Structures are given as C-alpha cells and as structure tokens.
Amino acid sequence: MKKNIHFISLDSILAEWLRDRLEQEPPQSAYAKGLLAGLRELLNDEASTLVLGVAGSRGNLSDTADDGIYAGELSIHPKSRKVLRQGREISLTPKEFDILYLLAQNRGEVFTKEQIYRAVWDGDFLLADSNIMAFIRKLRKKIEPNPDAPEYILTIWGIGYKFNDQL
C-alpha cells in the first residue's frame, strides 16, 4: 500500500545545503524555483513548514499546468493559497488553508486530530481536541454549502477527519 503522507524533519544544515545546491546547479525543472523559494523562507523564519508533493496524478513525476485540487464546486490552489467555491474566492486563515489542503491533498485518508496538529503546527504543541474541532467548524462554515451536513470535510467518529473522496 502506498503512503499518502510522510513527515520528515529538516534541520538548517540540510536546508542550507539544498538551497546552495539549487542556487549553484539548478535542475531543468519547472518546480526548482518554488523549492528554492520555500527553502529560503524556511531559513529566514518566514515559514515554519515546507510541504512537498509529487506533480501530476497517481504519483507520476510529470509537469502539470494547473496546480488546483478540484472537488465538486470547490477548488483549492496551493501556489496562490486560494480557495474558490462556485468560482467565488473564500477567505481562509493560513491555518484553515493548511488544514484544508492537507485533507484535500490526501483525499479519503483519515487523519486523527494529532496527525493534523503535527502536519500543520510546527515544533512542540499542546494537543487540545477542541482546538482542531474549532478550526474544522470554522472551515466548514466557510466552505460547506450546509455546514451542519458537510460534503467536503467528513467526521469519522472516534478517529478524526477526512476529505470526501467521493466528490
């Protein structure tokens, strides 16, 4: 079974080495500049997490013109950090976007509240179930046509949350 997500810690030594290598010998890839920019943000403390994904569908390393994730009337664009429903932009906080993107990128995979915390917040954290529940509730109010009967972010009782893989 293929893993959908894997967390790897990156220290400053490795981040600096990767940055230097990309600056000295940039590969012929449309994504090299994005990775370099992300590494610079990490090293300048402008970002705390860098999320990497494979371009294309089904894990194929291929270029894609569109970076969007589409589900029903919802589209999520990670490069511009925009979310649209029926073509209208929805304003999300950075953490709301990160949670939504994590779930949507791993459609159908169930995440516990602790896994969501580890993916979205950096370093040590105080896990409070009500914290994640509050973020999910706010996110549903913004993206769901009917937040009381969610279509996108589904609750898996006793476990956590998943993004609907039937859309």
Q: What is the name of the CATH architecture of the largest domain?
A: Orthogonal Bundle
> The biggest beta sheet, please?
4 strands, antiparallel
The number of helical runs is 5
Give the CATH H-level superfamily of the largest domain: Winged helix-like DNA-binding domain superfamily/Winged helix DNA-binding domain
Strand segment count: 7
Order of helices and strands: HHEEEEHEHHEE
Number of domains: 2
**Mean pLDDT across every amino acid position:** 83
Runs in which pLDDT lies below 50 for 5 or more consecutive residues are 57-65
Structural class per helix/strand content? alpha+beta
For the biggest β-sheet, the strand order reads: 1-2-3-4
Structure write-up:
The protein has helices spanning 12-24, 32-43, 94-105, 113-120, 129-143, and strands spanning 69-71, 74-77, 82-85, 88-90, 111-112, 153-156, 160-163. Helix 1 (12-24) packs antiparallel against helix 2 and helix 3 (94-105) packs across helix 5 (129-143). It has two domains: 7-65, no CATH class; 93-167, Winged helix-like DNA-binding domain superfamily/Winged helix DNA-binding domain (Arc Repressor Mutant, subunit A, Orthogonal Bundle), CATH 1.10.10. It is built from five helices and seven strands; from the N terminus they run H-H-E-E-E-E-H-E-H-H-E-E. 36% of the residues lie in helices and 14% in strands. With 167 residues, the chain is of the alpha+beta class. Strands 1-2-3-4 form a four-stranded antiparallel sheet, with helices on one face. It has a three-stranded antiparallel sheet with strand order 5-7-6. Strand 3 (82-85) and strand 4 (88-90) form a beta hairpin. Keywords: DNA-binding, Phosphoprotein, Two-component regulatory system. It comes from Cloacibacillus porcorum. Pfam families: Trans_reg_C.
